[in-house]
Design goal:
Protein name: Helix-hairpin-helix domain-containing protein
Radius of gyration: 25 Å
Helix content: 10-25%
Number of helices: 8
Organism: Candidatus Cryptobacteroides gallistercoris
Shape: globular
Length: about 650
């Protein structure tokens, strides 16, 4: 919950936050000399580097930084961090919906388990076709190798039901304004992997307390024969490369080679707080050997009906299906969906508001990945397409190349394919990227076993060129853009790592050039960690930001203290920073103005079934930005979250 008292005044809030932060800093320093514990997951004690799971989350998402991720994907990973996916008990349908595996990896893993028995370690997972050392080490944070079978056999033991309840609320006080509150709750019941019930309710700041601003629910049944799953309520539907049907918000940027292709999760229950982009209706998927059929029927405007409101444009219905072949070397599928015009307007014109059909393929030939999708807009008859490949060059270099063709007449209402703009329309593009590694392996302080060492020099480079044939972003005619980027990480020693990033964007409209520079210094001893960052952005003006963060993880308690300064006079020079928060809360604010901030994040494992998290932060603008009549108001915020697993 986010916590605060009624009628609190700004000086009192500021004092409370500063006391909390000073306490956290003192506690972190006093524990920095404590001896190291054995490895464990985030929030469970142990000595896994605090940033390890964040880096793994970014790597699996095809990005290099948490700032580049979308909130829905981050929430999925945070949920898996708390409740790892039991890969030895999961069906192909459940492995796919997790979003952790490509169709090729899912087929390879299920085939390996059927032939050789359960996967019992990260090292064994790395040996399965399609995984490898680096990918398996990143997955280790989000999967479980729990097994009830002897080596060489598969698990079929019965598991106990699991209840999970998350309660959070918040209190925010802005200078010269009344305080504001928010709250959210999420409940999930997992019946031994055979069924799952989920409910989410949320009200943000200024939205009132009842009814909740956002509600979602889902009921899913999982089978082991031909029936993969049946979902009633809210769900996501993501197929192919996302060119025709990819529900929910997704980031479209191209950074690391892994970001060039999508990992479709098919139909999956919707578990996010955001409430954006999901379907509400009935969905199911079925397996026939190596073939899978997924279908659903949803209704636009059904949320308003459930809330007792009248849909503004009336109800519209969305039927869809996907038929796919999943082999050990790849997959081929066909996706079709339609959306009817609102019932109130259906008789006035075209009965269909949207119609898409697409064919996609992803195939792996001797370590080289090929992927493509072609989609047809049934209303405008426009054809969109994308294609690409990812391939290794030697042991320490992986390259990816892709091209995309999204004509202006293509409606991207439910598309989520890779792109440089905001939508998969009015864009032609060509991209190339590479990930390299060099040098010897360096151990990571506080980690043991598989994945406890990394190559000393690692990096990602890329270039993306795009052209819009029709006006967009306020332009009067065609426009073009090019982005170039280089990321470099150096593991200096088991305790010290240096990270650098430089990117350049050149476009033919607005502010023509934008340069982004970033440097991080990271120190970790197993229990104590220290991170400093310096960022500079040059676009309309020059934006500068710097912060220092110290953290300590000792037994059942985790504490982090961060303080930073920023000087950003223009919105075009804004700087995004990932902020630590309680699990399930993805926080990436944009800093703009002249000011400072400080934040304390703490977590405690009260018992085997209870965890509590607290975040206190204060943001102020003591220096007035040139060209403004008055300085921006500061704000203080307190958040409290409790997670119960029983």
């Amino acid at each position: 919950m986010y916590f605060g008292g009624s009628g609190a005044r700004m000086p009192a809030i500021r004092l409370a936050v500063m006391v909390w932060c000073l306490f956290a800093g003192a506690a972190g320093v006093s524990w920095s000399a404590c001896r190291e514990n054995g490895p464990g997951r985030e929030g469970e004690g142990g000595s896994v580097p605090a940033s390890g799971w964040i880096q793994a989350m970014a790597f699996l998402s095809g990005t290099t930084e948490a700032e580049e991720m979308d909130s829905h994907t981050a929430e999925q990973f945070m949920s898996l961090l708390r409740h790892p996916l039991r890969i030895n008990y999961s069906t192909r349908s459940r492995l796919t919906e997790s979003g952790l595996f490509s169709p090729y990896q899912t087929a390879s893993l299920t085939d390996y388990i059927s032939r050789n028995g359960d996967v019992l370690s990260v090292a064994e997972l790395a040996a399965v076709d399609g995984f490898g050392r680096e990918y398996a080490a990143a997955l280790a944070y989000f999967v479980s190798f729990e097994s009830a079978a002897l080596p060489g056999y598969s698990s079929s033991a019965r598991r106990r039901p699991l209840n999970s309840l998350t309660l959070r609320s918040g209190f925010r006080q802005k200078e010269n304004e009344r305080h504001d509150c928010s709250y959210a709750l999420r409940y999930c019941l997992d019946l031994s992997g055979k069924a799952e019930l989920g409910f989410v309710a949320k009200s943000g700041y200024g939205a009132g307390h009842f009814p909740p601003e956002v509600t979602s629910f889902s009921l899913a049944f999982y089978g082991k024969g031909r029936v993969g799953k049946i979902v009633a309520g809210d769900f996501n539907a993501r197929f192919g490369q996302g060119l025709a049907l990819w529900s929910g918000f997704s980031m479209g940027g191209l950074s690391a080679p892994e970001s060039y292709s999508r990992r479709p999760s098919g139909i999956s229950p919707y578990r996010s707080y955001s409430g954006e982009g999901s379907f509400r209706g009935l969905a199911a998927d079925f397996s026939f050997g190596r073939f899978t059929l997924s279908s659903f029927i949803a209704a636009e405007g059904l949320r308003e009906v459930f809330a007792g409101k009248i849909p503004g444009e009336g109800l519209s219905f969305i039927p869809a299906f996907n038929m796919g072949y999943y082999g050990r070397n790849g997959q081929v599928s066909l996706t079709c969906y339609a959306q009817t015009a609102p019932v109130s307007a259906a008789s006035a014109g075209n009965p269909l508001a949207d119609l898409k059909c697409s064919a996609d393929i992803r195939w792996n030939i001797r370590g080289t990945d090929f992927f493509s999708e072609v989609a047809v807009d049934g209303i405008s008859l426009a054809v969109a397409a994308l294609a690409g490949t990812r391939f290794p060059i030697g042991e320490h270099l992986t390259m990816a190349v892709s091209a995309r063709y999204y004509p202006a007449g293509y409606s991207a209402l439910r598309s989520g394919a890779v792109r440089s703009g905001t939508k998969c329309t009015n864009e032609y593009g060509l991209s190339a990227s590479g990930a390299f590694a060099a040098g010897e392996y360096v151990p990571i302080a506080g980690k043991t076993g598989f994945g406890s060492s990394v190559v000393r020099h690692r990096g990602v480079f890329g270039i993306d060129a795009s052209h819009a044939p029709a006006p967009r972003f306020g332009t009067d005619g065609p426009s073009s853009q090019m982005k170039v980027r280089l990321d470099y990480d150096c593991r200096v020693s088991p305790h010290l790592e240096l990270s650098f990033r430089i990117s350049e964007r050149i476009r033919t409209w607005g502010e023509r050039c934008k340069t982004d520079l970033r440097a991080d210094v990271k120190y970790a001893s197993g229990i104590f960690s220290l991170v400093s960052r310096l960022s500079a952005v040059r676009c309309r003006g020059t934006g500068l930001l710097a912060y220092l963060e110290g953290g300590c993880r000792k037994g059942v308690l985790t504490l982090y203290l961060r303080g930073g300064l920023f000087r950003v006079d223009n919105w075009d020079d804004r700087i995004y920073v990932y902020e630590r928060d309680a699990p399930g809360n993805f926080n990436v604010p944009a800093y703009y103005g002249r000011g400072f901030w400080t934040a304390m994040t703490a977590g405690v494992k009260c018992s085997r079934s209870c965890r509590a998290y607290l975040r206190a932060s204060y943001l102020d603008y003591p220096w007035q930005t040139p060209g403004t009549e008055e300085k921006k108001p500061g704000k203080a915020e307190l958040k409290l979250q409790v997670v119960l697993d029983f």
